[in-house]
Design brief:
Blueprint (H helix, E strand, L loop, with lengths): L2 H16 L14 H12 L4 H15 L3 H8 L20
Length: 94
């Protein structure tokens, strides 16, 4: 990439960050790529963001898919030791 291209790419990504957007790479089957592109486009569009996000989150809650946070909230943790001894590290002379 030339210096001009690198500078333009850096500026583009900086503008995305200022808009609160994040560049994300995912791997999906080729036949499903269009769906994720449409979802990402709707989430990035300020006019469609709120409605799209609400509908998608509703769908996730209906299907039982809620990500790691939901998994941890619903995990049966009886008998699982959640406390552990404090590790003070090792003694190092500086």
């Amino acid at each position: 990439m030339t210096a001009a291209q690198t500078k333009a790419l850096r500026a583009h990504r900086r503008r995305l960050t200022q808009r609160g957007l994040l560049r994300l790479e995912v791997r999906v089957p080729k036949d499903d790529a269009w769906m994720l592109k449409q979802l990402a486009s709707a989430l990035a569009d300020p006019l469609r963001h709120d409605e799209t996000r609400e509908k998608f989150l509703d769908w996730l809650s209906e299907t039982g898919v809620g990500g790691v946070h939901a998994l941890l909230l619903n995990a049966p943790l009886e008998g699982v030791p959640l406390k552990r001894a404090r590790d003070r590290g090792r003694n190092v002379k500086l």
